[in-house]
Write a structure and sequence with these properties.
The chain is α/β, with parallel strands linked by helices. It is built from 13 helices and eleven strands. The protein has a seven-stranded parallel beta sheet with strand order 3-2-1-4-5-6-11, with helices on both faces.
């Protein structure tokens, strides 16, 4: 994707780079940068972020890892046929899709892969470094948009693939964003490395539909002093995520974030459960129902029901672009550790952040204001900055302690 010579280019390395979300991200970025479509859904393109120094969409260069071999242009054709992408857009940005596809490297571990975890981390990190070097990028952000993994089986189990990728990002000196419920940087091994990496990171599990609505309605009930007795939900979805979430262990990881929002915003845990059903015929589209039983004045019993129908990739893609730009800018400004202010985008955010959407948005726009004063690494943000002298940690400091990984 072309960029002005006066603007440094920034890499976006996508884990799950040939999936529906990643394909929509690359297609959408190219279409918006070319003026073919407005940036609908991109919070970073609203006036609150003017002057925050975010990288231009035209300055983003895409690559990634995936275990699939379906080329991005072909995947974009499939998404167009399914109504996810508008007619003609994939054709109009075919060159950008092909360029991104050339930068996708084999992921893993795959069945029969005999490489050790340390070997996989090294290989993944080398791929990212090579991408940054060949394109002369100022920096790169690694974003996990792969299908949800089952929950970890305990401290003695093999590291999940999402954690291998997270450790590779740290090894390569790149900020990391986990847009999935998978463990990633939450694994104790990766969490320790993240703490001493001097890099910013954010996650987990993008808030695109049902939980977005819950983060608005939960505070509403609490602020109006209405007692919620029960809150039940059902999700119908297809595609790769639907298939992955058919696994009860994977679904449990995703539902935990949905239910935590209710507990945090209501101050109590209501009765009821959230279910996820795989309906392959729905493809990339999903439907979410919520049934909320609450008490009004004098104990009058009432019901609120909501239905959310949407396209998962179209909901997620603008958020991924927002997060890549914000995290890259945080890295440029010398910030490190969990980016609490990005909780607005997540079901289960890292760091210490409120759960209500209004408070999260206030924190996000405050973050945008702080970035306006950050002329360079460590200047003017008033937030956590890289502890090393001069901002950036060197490669040896970043990787210290990672050589002993299994």
């Amino acid at each position: 994707m072309s960029a002005s010579l006066s603007r440094p280019r920034v890499g976006v390395w996508l884990i799950g780079a040939r999936g529906s979300v990643a394909t929509t991200v690359v297609t959408g970025c190219a279409a918006v940068a070319a003026g073919l479509h407005p940036p609908t859904g991109m919070v970073t393109e609203t006036p609150a972020f003017t002057g925050s120094g975010l990288p231009e969409l035209s300055a983003l260069v895409f690559g990634g890892h995936d275990t699939l071999d379906c080329p991005l242009p072909k995947r974009a054709e499939s998404l167009t046929a399914g109504g996810v992408l508008p007619p003609g857009v994939a054709t109009a940005v075919a060159a950008e899709l092909a360029a991104a596809d050339r930068e996708i490297r084999p992921g893993g571990p795959t069945p029969g892969d005999t490489r050790s975890e340390a070997d996989l981390i090294t290989a993944f990190a080398d791929d990212i470094r090579d991408f940054v070097h060949r394109h002369e990028l100022e920096r790169a952000v690694v974003v996990n948009v792969a299908s949800t993994e089952p929950a970890s089986q305990g401290p003695d189990a093999p590291l999940p693939a999402s954690t291998l990728y997270a450790l590779a990002a740290l090894r390569a000196g790149c900020p990391y964003v986990n847009f999935t419920p998978s463990e990633g940087m939450h694994h104790p091994v990766a969490a320790r490395e993240a703490e001493r990496s001097g890099l910013p990171y954010a996650g987990r599990d993008g808030k695109t539909g049902q939980t977005l609505l819950r983060s608005v309605l939960g505070p509403m009930f609490a602020q109006r002093a209405l007692t919620v007795r029960a809150w039940s939900g059902t999700n119908l979805l297809g595609g790769g995520d639907g298939a992955a979430l058919a696994d009860p262990a994977a679904a449990a990881a995703k539902n935990a974030g949905k239910e935590r929002v209710l507990t945090d915003t209501l101050g109590t845990t209501p009765q009821g459960e959230t279910h996820i059903d795989d309906v392959p015929a729905l493809g990339d589209w999903k439907t979410a129902w919520d049934h909320i039983a609450f008490d009004g004045f004098l104990g009058t019993r009432m019901i609120l029901q909501t239905t959310w129908q949407g396209c998962d990739s179209a909901l997620a893609a603008p958020l991924v672009l927002d997060l890549a730009r914000l995290t890259a800018r945080a890295h440029e400004s010398g910030l490190y550790g969990p980016l609490d202010a990005l909780a607005f985008y997540f079901k289960d955010p890292v760091g210490d952040a409120p759960s209500g959407l209004a408070e999260q948005y206030e924190a996000l726009t405050g973050f945008a204001r702080s970035l306006r004063g950050a002329a360079g690494p460590g200047e003017g943000t008033g937030l956590r900055q890289d502890p090393a002298e001069g901002g950036e940690l060197g490669p040896r400091e970043r990787t210290e302690g990672m050589e002993g990984l299994r």
